[in-house]
Amino acid sequence: MTYAFDDKTMERRRFLFALFGGGTAVALGGWAAVRLMGRKGGGAMAATSAAANAPSQIVQLECFAEEDGRDLGMCDVRKLVLTDAQWHQRLSDPAFNVLRRAGTEMAFSGPHEKPNHKGMYRCAGCDTALFNASTQFDSGTGWPSFWQPIAKRNVIENRDNSYGMERIAVSCAGCDGHLGHVFDDGPPPTGLRYCMNSVAMRFVAIA
């Protein structure tokens, strides 16, 4: 079942997200670019045009309300595709290095290792809902760790053989941004440890 958003909600979301990075977006579980707002200057306009003309891809994500974390069911979302210049405008340098370059932040350097409130984590790049704080645990590793994602369809897992290691990389289904890795040394009930980078996510507290 696809969740339908009314025009008022759509316009509010587009306006708010346009304030943070020059793009417009839609959906509550995964922000997706619908059209890109150009900036003055030939280089910026050319970059915007290139991204806008990129082939679009619609993905089905599990959507969650921003205000109270309510599960809204599946929704069709246009995957967010931007140029490197546009990602740099939207993200901090550390977040760009992780999300767009598959980097890793230093252990114990992020703000999300031990949350003090109920809430959820969303992608810092496209706002896709990723993890519920209720599934977070203290792994002692220095990175926020979870025993399952908020919805399996909202993350992508691929084999990663970089640096001479065999790992499973985890990325956001809404923008293909790198989040971290998943390991099989986690607690019950899944036995998994989704080891994420703090800068790749933003925390939304829920009362």
Task: Outline the fold blueprint.
Layout: H1 7-18, E1 23-26, E2 32-36, H2 42-52, E3 58-64, E4 71-78, H3 84-90, H4 93-99, E5 119-123, E6 129-132, E7 136-137, E8 145-146, E9 155-160, E10 167-172, E11 178-183, E12 193-196, E13 201-205
Account of the protein in words:
The protein is α+β, with helices and mostly antiparallel strands and 207 residues long. 18% of the residues lie in helices and 31% in strands. It is built from 4 helices and 13 strands. The protein has helices spanning 7-18, 42-52, 84-90, 93-99; strands at 23-26, 32-36, 58-64, 71-78, 119-123, 129-132, 136-137, 145-146, 155-160, 167-172, 178-183, 193-196, 201-205. A 6-stranded antiparallel β-sheet has the order 7-8-12-11-10-9, with no helix packed on it. A 3-stranded antiparallel β-sheet has the order 6-5-13, with no helix packed on it. A two-stranded antiparallel ribbon has the order 1-2. The model is unreliable at 1-52 (pLDDT under 50).
Q: How much of the polypeptide forms β-strand, as a percent range? A: 25-35%
User: How confident overall, as mean pLDDT?
Assistant: 79
In total, how many beta strands?
Answer: 13
Quaternary state of this entry equals single chain
Could you tell me the radius of gyration in angstroms? 17 Å
The arrangement of helices and strands along the chain is: HEEHEEHHEEEEEEEEE
The end-to-end distance, rounded to whole angstroms, is 28 Å
Helix percent band: 10-25%
Low-pLDDT regions: 1-52
Structural class: alpha+beta
Strand order of the largest sheet: 7-8-12-11-10-9
Shape: globular
Taking the sheet with the most strands, its summary is: 6 strands, antiparallel
Our count of helices gives 4
Pfam families: SelR (PF01641)
InterPro entries: Met_Sox_Rdtase_MsrB, Met_Sox_Rdtase_MsrB_dom, Mss4-like_sf, TAT_signal
Keywords: Membrane, Oxidoreductase, Transmembrane, Transmembrane helix
Enzyme class: oxidoreductase
